[in-house]
């Protein structure tokens, strides 16, 4: 019955209630759609860097006078559990002959290349096979099966390496097997590239440093994940800041709700007096008034949430040129947050008017005309 | 007979600026259960103030009021509400129905405040006051007499022992007024204590006793 009373009072002032709902819709929508946008941005970034997010690169600590990683260290690293892919790398600047043309580029040796993604061809370094970076392939119009030569040794291109987001391997590189490299050059390992599952990256990296840097700092590690964390924090910060600005609109909505409910309480002074005269406790008057604000809050927040999906879709389409992250679980977290935020704000703004209404003195309220 | 209402040296003083206005100036009387009393007096005599005090809508500045033996002086807002809810039924001059609720819902409202709506009882009450066919009408769709009948049914919702009526026929034509008075008379015959404020001697005729009040004091008992 209290709900019915609240509902009928709202219906009695249709336009007023509608305006109140609209103000909540705008507030909730502003906050939620920006939240959805921030989340999409983050997911977009993670997907963009997904290929390297689990990469760890170990390189010598140049500051401490180390310029290479010795075989013993590589052996030690290899034993660490949690590593999914592993390859020590040597490198040397070389002159490469590509048909009639020549170019200087970086030659890498790898134990295995299976963990790297190819743009085309096969990830194989067996025999006389090599892999070339995408930029080099494009510049010189190289295809799988083409022949190149380094120091008069001929190699056949097995695959063209897809360039990774962080250019961990230069996209102008030529990659050959360690055996072939050692035949041409005598060098030590320059770095070790490995992959671990996303959750293990930090553990593995810590373990490596623990084992190799016992006495002195011989190696340093670089994790793509750490950089992603910084990016992600920045996006969070910016989207929270934008949400805070958007929250002003919800604040304005809450002021208007408070105003509406105060007017409503004033208009119904006599009605409140009658209800108190016939036995309504303060708690019951409070309930009726809070129910009214709650109905407004629920309706406004719900519609606001629906609109925010549309809003998020539009913002993402305009700014990110893709809205594919809008309908993901994390957006629904934003929706739930926006909904809760809307309802709670409205409820808080309804408290004072309801409290005032329930404390009307019956005799004065009855006299009110 | 047991006392339903007792007033001892009741004062109600309003302050308007620096001036004190004694609306009630030392009133004492008691009303027995089952009595039918009219309070009469010219406007400004304090008769409505008196009814409001008896109805626990207001508290005296000084003096004591007992309703069914309970001293209301020290009760708080909600405690007074509970007394009104359980023991007193109000009938107002302007009916004071809740405009958004139907006749039936208006009668059910005090029951809901008391913890449970009893639809059948509400319908019975509306039938008793003669508007069983209008239970789903909103107050605006009812005539004055019909509204006052709903108000009477509402006053009876929680089965109160005392009914307070403030100029119950003030907004009604004389024929409708006498119909309403017949209902009140009937309720009194069934054992309810009725206290009614009026300035109309022909209406006061219906009661057994008349308290006349002037300048906040009782004139004749």
Structural features, described:
The mean pLDDT of chain A is 90. In chain A, helix 7 packs parallel to helix 10 (329-358) and helix 9 (282-319) runs antiparallel to helix 10. In chain A, 41% of the residues are buried. Chain A has a 6-stranded mixed β-barrel. Chain A has helices spanning 2-12, 14-48, 71-78, 134-139, 178-184, 201-212, 224-267, 269-277, 282-319, 329-358, 362-367; strands spanning 55-60, 83-98, 101-110, 118-121, 129-133, 147-150, 153-161, 174-177, 191-196, 219-223. Chain A has 369 residues and is an alpha+beta fold. Chain A is 56% helix and 19% strand. Chain A contains 11 helices and 10 strands. In chain B, strands 6-7-8-3-9-10 form a 6-stranded mixed sheet, with helices on both faces. In chain B, strands 2-1-4-5 form a 4-stranded antiparallel sheet, with helices on one face. Chain B is globular. Chain B is built from 7 helices and 10 strands. Chain B is of the alpha/beta class. Chain B starts with a strand and ends with a strand. Chain B has helices spanning 47-54, 77-87, 103-113, 119-128, 144-155, 174-189, 201-204, and strands at residues 3-16, 19-32, 36-40, 62-67, 70-71, 88-91, 162-166, 193-198, 209-214, 217-220. Chains A and B meet through helix 1, helix 8, helix 9 and helix 11 of A and helix 2 and helix 3 of B.
Quickly describe the structure.
The complex is a heterodimer of chains A (369) and B (221). Chain A is of the alpha+beta class and 369 residues long.
How many independent structural domains of chain A? 2
Average pLDDT level of chain B: 91
DSSP summary: helix tally of chain B: 7
Give, in spatial order, the strands making up the sheet with the most strands of chain A: 2-3-8-5-7-6
Strand fraction of chain B: 25-35%
User: In this structure, how is the largest beta sheet of chain A organized?
Assistant: 6 strands, mixed, barrel
H and E string of chain A: HHEHEEEEHEEEHEHEHHHHH
Task: Give the rounded overall mean pLDDT of chain A.
Answer: 90
Helicity of chain A, as a percent range: 55-70%
Q: Shape of chain A, please?
A: elongated
Helix fraction of chain B, binned, reads 25-40%
User: Structural class per helix/strand content of chain A?
Assistant: alpha+beta
